[in-house]
């Protein structure tokens, strides 16, 4: 079984991800409801009431690289 590092900044809650990418707090949830196929397989999941999304998922739906990493390139 693959080991998953839950401490990585590449996994975040949907609200936090939406804000990081400069969108409204409900952006990820709304985008998933309207077009779930935009998210690569395994890049978003709901745990109870909490939506979790990966950097890969955010980059796929926004077309923008991770803003946290752009200044470091």
UniProtKB/TrEMBL annotation:
It comes from Limosilactobacillus caviae. Pfam families: HTH_59 (PF20038). This is Helix-turn-helix domain-containing protein. It comes from the Bacteria. InterPro entries: HTH_59_Firmicutes_type. Residues 9-65 form the Helix-turn-helix domain.
């Amino acid at each position: 079984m693959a080991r998953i590092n839950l401490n990585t900044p590449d996994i975040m809650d949907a609200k936090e991800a939406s804000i990081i990418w400069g969108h409204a707090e409900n952006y990820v949830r709304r985008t998933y409801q309207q077009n779930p196929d935009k998210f690569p397989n395994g890049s978003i999941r709901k745990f109870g009431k909490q939506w979790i999304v990966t950097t890969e998922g955010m980059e796929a739906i926004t077309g923008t690289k991770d803003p946290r990493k752009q200044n470091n390139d």
